[in-house]
């Protein structure tokens, strides 16, 4: 294996999802072994308590590498590393190329926030997506009434973002306002991926100023935005949820691998996916001792929204909701957030 071949394979890892496109990963190459390192400075949002969100992202990063390795002609041995910023070590072994059914969709995977079309998922598609998983169960809900409840619960995340200073500041510090800026930094969330019309984008720009937003919220702006998003979410063909009985670091990493595989399957059958997991991450923060950052009103909103998710998906006492999303048919996204080049992520 040459270094150029290795870099080619590792580059596919960078197409993994991450919160607000923070890309919380670093890579160190030592001959035929690669260390995947968590950059804890990248995602310091309230959603990422105890690095839950970042561990999912790093799992997705490694899943892309695993798929690409088979396609190019390498076997990989992946060893999770517990207890520090070194998350995994990957050993690459020369082998014969094996065509992987999901390889061609790695670069096509994206978050699609457009309104979804009136479309009923086929039982064939559902069965394909529900292929047994080892670390998390997949639940899919297609009942329109239940989707309405989930859409309302998910949309409360927007109400929280527009009322909580920490959530607000983190979001707007990662918004990229122009294509030129996106091309230059290849990190953060390009505003056009939010699929707003020109008027909405102007209001959104005003919302970046906390003092202006506080005034607009007196006119119930946050309720209006949450309701608009709820309507969009409710028109989805389905909601899905990955559920696990463990929130250990290793399990979260492996659930991240499953999440990525699922997302690629979604793309492969011509569907779109939009993660709606904000409430779940905030609830996990409360459950694990980090809820002091929320007001009593915010805590009540998070708890009630999570309770809705629990009831609709019929979660049991030991079930942990990890990743919720909406599914459906849609037009192509208006724009894409770019990813850093692998060479910019290498630790020398």
What distance lies between the first and last C-alpha atoms, to the nearest angstrom? 19 Å
Instruction: Please give the CATH class of the largest domain.
Output: Alpha Beta
Q: Give the class from helix and strand content and strand pairing.
A: alpha+beta
Briefly note the CATH topology name of the largest domain. NADH Oxidase
The CATH fourth-level homologous superfamily of the largest domain: NADH Oxidase
Count of helices? Answer: 12
Mean pLDDT: 96
Beta-strand content bin? 15-25%
Total number of domains? 2
Strand order of the largest sheet: 1-2-4-3
* Total DSSP E strands: 10
Biggest beta sheet attributes: 4 strands, antiparallel
Poorly predicted runs are: none
* Elements, N to C (H/E): HEEHEEHEHHEHEHHHEHEHHE
CATH architecture of the largest domain: 3-Layer(aba) Sandwich
Helical content band? 40-55%
Q: What is the CA-based Rg, rounded?
A: 20 Å
What is the approximate shape?
globular
């Amino acid at each position: 294996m040459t270094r150029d071949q290795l870099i080619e394979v590792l580059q596919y890892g960078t197409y993994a999802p991450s919160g607000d496109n923070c890309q919380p990963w670093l890579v160190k190459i030592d001959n035929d072994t690669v260390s995947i390192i968590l950059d804890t400075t990248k995602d310091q949002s309230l959603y990422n308590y105890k690095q839950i969100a970042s561990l999912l992202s790093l799992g997705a990063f490694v899943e892309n590498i695993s798929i690409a390795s088979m396609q190019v002609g390498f076997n990989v041995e992946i060893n999770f590393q517990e207890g520090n910023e070194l998350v995994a070590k990957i050993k690459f072994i020369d082998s014969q190329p094996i065509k992987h059914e999901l390889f061609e969709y790695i670069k096509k995977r994206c978050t699609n926030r457009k309104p979804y079309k009136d479309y009923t998922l086929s039982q064939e598609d559902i069965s394909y997506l529900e292929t047994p998983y080892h670390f998390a169960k997949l639940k899919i809900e297609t009942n329109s009434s239940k989707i309405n409840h989930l859409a309302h619960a998910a949309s409360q995340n927007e109400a929280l973002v527009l009322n909580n200073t920490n959530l607000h500041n983190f979001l707007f510090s990662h918004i990229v306002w122009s294509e030129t800026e996106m091309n230059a930094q290849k990190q953060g969330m390009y505003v056009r991926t939010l699929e707003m019309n020109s008027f909405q984008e102007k209001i959104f720009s005003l919302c970046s100023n906390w003092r202006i937003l506080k005034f607009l919220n007196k006119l119930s702006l946050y309720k209006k935005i949450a309701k608009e998003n709820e309507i969009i979410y409710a028109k989805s063909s389905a909601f899905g949820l990955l559920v696990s009985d463990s929130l250990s670091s290793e399990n979260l990493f492996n659930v991240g691998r499953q999440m990525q595989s699922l997302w690629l399957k979604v793309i492969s059958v011509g569907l779109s996916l939009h993660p709606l997991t904000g409430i779940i991450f905030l609830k996990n923060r409360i459950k694990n001792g980090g809820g002091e950052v929320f007001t009593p009103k915010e805590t009540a909103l998070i708890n009630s929204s999570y309770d809705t998710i629990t009831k609709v998906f019929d979660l049991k006492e030991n079930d942990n909701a990890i990743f919720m999303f909406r599914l459906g048919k849609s037009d192509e996204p208006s724009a894409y957030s770019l990813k850093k080049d692998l060479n910019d992520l290498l630790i020398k």
